[in-house]
Amino acid sequence: MVSLHSPSPPSHPCDAGSTSGAPPFHIAPADAFTIDELVAAYNQTRVDYIVPMPMNATRLAEYVHHYDVDMGRSAVALDDGDTLGLAMLGVRPGHTWITRLGVLPHKRKHGTGRALMQHLIDQSRQLEVPYIILEVIMGNDPAERLFHELGFKAVRELLIVRRPPGPSSIDAGPYTVQILDHPQTVALLDRRHSIPSWLDEAASLNNAGGLAALRVDLPGEEWGWIVYQPTTFQLSRLVLQTERGDPRRVGRALAHALHARHPTSDTKSENLPVDDPHWPALQELGYFESFRRIEMRLDL
User: Fold this and answer.
1) Domain holding 244: CATH number?
2) In which domain, by residue range, is 86 found?
3) Which terminal residue of the chain has fewer beta carbons within 10 Å of its beta carbon, N or C?
4) Facing residues of 29 across strands?
5) Taken in order 149, 153, 157, 159, is the CA torsion positive or negative?
6) Are residues 44 and 120 in the same domain?
7) How many domains does the chain have?
8) Residue 260 is inside which H or E element, if any?
9) Residues 177, 269: one domain?
10) Could you tell me the sign of the dihedral formed by the alpha carbons of 110, 113, 114, 119, in that order?
11) Whole-angstrom distance, CA of residue 27 vs CA of residue 112
12) Using one digit for the tens of pLDDT, what is the confidence trace for 71-92?
């Protein structure tokens, strides 16, 4: 069990709701603890998770910044100084986002996850936002059942997709490509047609920074653009849009241009809607589904 130590963090008593005689526990704000303490607790809650997602201090600090996580409204469940679980709340105008819910494996089924969720729902109500969203990995049935019991409704399925390094081996047909500057890149996000998830909302992309963009023009006045984040070894945060023409043709040209420009980069992009019209083109270019999430929403 991980022990979190802080100078008497403010906390709220919470009945664990267990039928096995488990004692009450307390909910404390996450900002009462150091990043290192939270990382240690988080990694303990995910040791048997359906998709491993380990954290270190740098990655957690980036996560908090990129996704506007309010650590004062995020929560840690404690029992006599020992952590039982934690959950985080992203806060933006008009909605909140519950993320990184985790409970230590040997402390599950005693109401900890439900209490953490209820705490974040209460925090969202205090903010007077109209709704909360979250994502759950498809196949994590206990978590999905809990969210349904708390009133969340499934909205859509989202894909986490990958592509190994290498240029495209298919013929994308004739097109011209234009490399866009940063102001042009940011402006593209304001004209986006698709409904983003929290991870790829404009706020998340701008917080992450380092964005790049390409525009392709095809015969017949078909054209579109792609915004993405290139790092030393990986491309991520892909946003594709066809402005005119067939999304499959335009998407094929966009992906072809992207990987011609970055042939040695691995690619991983999260939360592509399963019905995105560019997905068939991405599959032609070597993208594959890694796993799926279910986006859920609770109207307050």
Assistant:
1) 3.40.630
2) 12-129
3) N
4) 75
5) negative
6) yes
7) 2
8) helix 247-261
9) yes
10) positive
11) 9
12) 999 999 998 878 899 999 999 9
